[in-house]
Design a protein that fits this description.
Layout: H1 2-19, H2 25-41, H3 50-58, H4 63-69, H5 73-85, H6 89-111, H7 115-125, H8 131-147, H9 151-162, H10 174-177, H11 184-200, H12 204-215, H13 221-232, H14 234-239, H15 243-267, H16 272-292, H17 302-305, H18 309-318, H19 323-346
Helix pairs in contact: 1-2, 1-7, 1-19, 2-6, 2-7, 6-7, 6-8, 7-19, 8-9, 8-16, 11-16, 12-13, 15-16, 16-18, 18-19
Length: 371
């Protein structure tokens, strides 16, 4: 129930932001950040990968443990820095969660849309931040510099994100590819090719990827073991889709491309912000289809590219000038992301480690669940 209450609170902030003066809106965003940040950082044995991150933090000053874990330098240094001052994992979560929210707030400010809606979407899709979530939020801040064609600031954000999670390496080419305005047929062609290659290359392409990771100098034994689990273990089994599910997600992707291309022609011809976000979105869903049948969990890198989904929807809503019309569309978007929040996050495959929500003040203990 507490998940739903927080979602409702954020939804009210979204509507409230539309109804108050622009100078007052920052206070609503601050309230949202505080609510989400405390909710995330005060949790205990709740959320994915709890044990591995908890153990790494406690032993982050142990060189043998660090080497076996194989985490990136930036994330390792963040753990070590906080561990020098405190042995409390809650303190670490506090820093990690509010850092993540800082980058999300900066992204919302850069995109100049409803800030609280961006916060709500980020919470709905990634309820509890982990290492990848922080890297993803940092990458979102690099969008502005792709749009403005400023390579050095983009590179700084990219390297910072890469120091947290190496998977962001797949995002680097986007700086050079997404500023051109591609036609609808070209975008659909890219997506269709990715779907076909993904379906046909399930076995061959997966083995090629494994070979590349062996040759890549930054990959150690622990990372190779993780990749083997992604390709052959439980992870693909739980994320694989039946043909109907796959078809529905394919149709959903086509619908959004059609929608965004229609509104580009109607409202946003020559708008570089919208154009870059659209190109990134198509690259993201193409990346997803390429890996969905090969390494399903690797397809989560889609979020590096599709952070502009909510922004494009909000840009479309902003073209309607009547407040009542905007609020109706906000409610539609809230319902859509609530469905994603329920089915994709708290009631998905990891339901048992989200519900019930335990925090540092809770009585009792979570038993019988691998976390």
């Amino acid at each position: 129930m507490i998940y739903q209450l927080l979602f409702i609170f954020l939804s009210l902030l979204v509507i409230g932001e539309e109804c108050i003066k622009p100078k007052q809106r920052k206070w609503l965003l601050l309230c949202g950040i505080l609510a989400v940040g405390l909710f995330q950082s005060l949790r205990w044995k709740t959320g994915t990968d709890w044990t591995s991150y908890y153990d790494f933090f406690i032993h982050s000053n142990n060189s043998v443990w660090r080497e076996e874990a194989g985490f990136e330098l930036g994330y390792t240094y963040l753990n070590q820095l906080i561990r020098c001052f405190s042995s409390s994992f809650t303190i670490f979560l506090f820093v990690e969660c509010f850092l993540n929210l800082f980058f999300i707030a900066r992204f919302a400010k850069d995109m100049k849309v409803n800030h609280c809606m961006v916060l709500l979407v980020s919470f709905a899709l990634m309820v509890f931040p982990i290492r990848y979530t922080l890297a993803n939020s940092i990458i979102l801040c690099s969008y502005k510099y792709i749009i403005d064609k400023k390579f050095f600031p983009f590179l700084c954000f990219f390297l910072l994100a890469f120091s947290i999670h190496r998977i962001v390496i797949v995002f680097f080419p986007m700086y050079f590819l997404v500023r051109k305005e591609y036609s609808f047929s070209v975008l659909m062609g890219i997506f269709t090719i990715a779907v076909i290659v993904g379906l046909l290359g399930e076995t061959t392409f997966a083995n090629v990827l494994k070979l590349i990771t062996v040759l890549y100098a930054g990959v150690g034994e622990s990372f190779q073991e993780k990749l083997n689990a992604y390709v052959t273990g439980d992870i693909p089994d739980r994320l694989s889709m039946n043909p109907i599910q796959y078809l529905l997600t394919y149709l959903s992707s086509i619908f959004f491309v059609l929608l965004f291309c229609y509104y580009r022609k109607k409202f946003f011809i020559g708008n570089q912000v919208y154009n870059v976000l659209l190109n990134l979105y198509v690259c993201g869903i193409s990346f997803n289809r390429l890996f969905l049948q090969i390494i399903p969990d690797f397809a989560r890198a889609t979020s590096l590219f599709t952070g502009g989904l909510s922004v494009m929807l909000l840009l479309i809503v902003s073209q309607y000038h009547r407040r009542a019309t905007k609020i109706v569309w906000y409610l539609v978007l809230i319902l859509y992301f609530y469905f994603q929040f329920r089915k994709g996050s708290i009631e998905g495959y990891y339901k048992d480690i989200y519900i019930p929500y335990y925090n540092i003040f809770s009585e009792g203990e979570r038993f019988g669940t691998v976390i």
